[in-house]
Amino acid sequence: MARSRPSAAGGVLIAIGAIVGTAVGVARQQPTLGLIIGIATGAALAVAIWLRDRAR
After folding, report:
1. What was the pLDDT predicted at 2?
2. Are 10 and 46 in contact (CB under 8 A)?
3. How confident is the prediction along the chain (56 residues), in pLDDT tens digits per residue?
4. Distances from the Cα of 13 to the Cαs of 2, 3, 4, 16, 17, in angstroms?
5. Are 25 and 53 in contact (CB under 8 A)?
6. Shortest CA distance to 14 belongs to which of 37, 33, 39?
7. DSSP codes of every residue in the chain
8. Which long-range contacts (CB under 8 A, 24 or more apart) does 13-20 make?
């Protein structure tokens, strides 16, 4: 049986995006907006990593 390569983990980017987005949002007095933007950015990066990993 051929060994498959482990997939790249992009989920951590969503978590980091949420934390950093919230921190930036708190600094700008818009924590909810920062959270939403952080999650969206992290999700976009996670999807990009998934697509790159899938192409290999």
Report:
1. 60
2. yes
3. 567 777 677 889 999 999 999 999 999 999 999 999 999 999 999 999 989 888 77
4. 30, 27, 23, 5, 6
5. no
6. 39
7. -PPPPPPP--HHHHHHHHHHHHHHHHHTT-HHHHHHHHHHHHHHHHHHHHHHHHH-
8. 13/42, 13/43, 13/45, 13/46, 13/49, 14/39, 14/42, 14/43, 14/46, 15/42, 16/42, 17/41, 17/42, 17/43, 17/45, 18/42
